[in-house]
Backbone:
């Protein structure tokens, strides 16, 4: 069985899914795919993504918001 080459961690992108060993927590792959990865996301991008989804949820009907809060947020509504 061939050994995988350990990536140079300084050359890897700033990504929330990157482990200390250069592996990806999000995808079932042995090493980070680098800048070309379509799932690469920085902390700032994650925050903006959450803000956008909360804005979209807050524009929904109150009963649908309640359903979402019960199903995914234990009854809380972090978008309010």
Residues:
């Amino acid at each position: 069985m061939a050994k995988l080459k350990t990536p140079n961690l300084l050359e890897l992108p700033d990504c929330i899914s990157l482990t200390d060993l250069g592996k990806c927590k999000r995808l079932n792959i042995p090493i980070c795919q680098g800048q070309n990865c379509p799932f690469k996301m920085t902390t700032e991008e994650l925050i903006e993504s959450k803000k956008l989804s909360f804005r979209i949820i807050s524009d929904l009907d109150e009963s649908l918001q309640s359903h979402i809060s019960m199903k995914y947020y234990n009854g809380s509504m972090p978008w309010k």
Observations:
- The mean pLDDT is 89.
- The radius of gyration is 18 Å.
- The chain has two helices and no strands.
